[in-house]
Structures
1.
Amino acid sequence: MNDALEWLQFVLAPQMINGLSIGVAVVLMALGLTIIFGLLDVINMAHGEFYAIGAYLAGGKTTWPITQADADAFQPPTAVGAAPAAATPATTEASS
């Protein structure tokens, strides 16, 4: 009996929550496309892009550094292969 309750709590409940949240997101996208197509008679292909932008913004907002120490220690990423400013020479003159 205890194994069944643990299975319900740790396996079935999270799967139900994940399924419902993904289902709600798909329904909202479908309703948005239906409303736009019904009003304008045009398929708006940018609808998914706006949905993705919203998802990225929501994900970024929830994972942003929370404490001031985390914010102070945050280092923005640099371009791949880019040298730090201190390692670049001040002049690029060739000696003759």
Note: DSSP finds three helices and no strands in the chain.
2.
Amino acid sequence: MPFKIVAVAAGPISSTLQFSATISAPIQVKVTSEVSGIAVSLRDDEGQYVRRGQTLVRLDDREGRLLLREAQLAVDRSVADSVRTTHQRRHCWRFG
């Protein structure tokens, strides 16, 4: 069978091949959230490596912040009530 020898040179690709395939990652992990909420930002570089603990989704935290503030105010009120009650009891014992 005759063959032709040619020099290798850079140039346009004159033919292409297309194949169908199914690929899968060698390692799969389950990604879960510790809390539920509305996503306000999503890491959009699909296919990139990620590290444990890396933020992938940022959730809307306005409701959580509001609940935290309300809880802090409730603690502050409770402490103030306790101080007031203690002061009143001491005052009554002195002048009772």
Note: Residues 62-96 form one domain.
3.
Amino acid sequence: MTKTIRIRESQVAGAMVSLHGAAPFHRAPLILVHPDEIGYFKVQKYLKHVVKVDPFSQEDWDTLVLSGEITPLTPCKAELDMWIWVFRKNFAPDRKDIIAELDRKQQLHFPTWGDRDAIAVLVVETELDDLQSSFTTNLLNQCEQALVDRREDALALAQTAFCFGPSMTARGLALLAVAYDLDGNKVRADAYGKIAKNSKSQRFVDLYEQELNRIRALSCTTDIGPKNPELQLHIAELSRRWADKYFG
């Protein structure tokens, strides 16, 4: 049952994320504890002075830690709009760049966690909207140039921009589709195209088509191949998840 707790006395106990995974970047909610409350609380939404949370027990915590769904963290003070960002080793072109920029702007809320495979940092996202948007735009520009040059890092750049961006964009989806197509994976290329075309906004669909045609022309690729009927259910599920997340 969802409830609210005061943020001022709350502490970070963990995060609903595994440090190790395939995605180059992962944003995840924190798990909090509060001195006046029993159990653990997964952040659902930050409000003005409180946070809406989903409570769970010590037994649930132990089970989720054991399964790898929760990463325990060194306790520290929680703040409004604080989330965990996980940068994995396949973050392109180099996760050191964005971490250094966060550090330069004094937006790293220590401690940090991780190893050579993954680095996790606490950030207050309301302070980082401009940085996240500008860094994503830079990644998309680099990806587009890599596609024009037929460089091998084009797909990694497209994947990183898609994961790191504050929202799904027509340009980001089109770059992913073309990058996967050039990589020989038409199944994934079709899947991202289907996600765009199943969005609830016709304007988004039109923008996607425009971007897809423009990027294909720049990279001299052929049309994204026809849909494989055997994959329609899988693609439809991906489409539903992304449409629900970004278009409500």
Note: Helices lie at 58-67, 95-104, 129-148, 154-164, 170-182, 186-197, 202-219, 232-247.
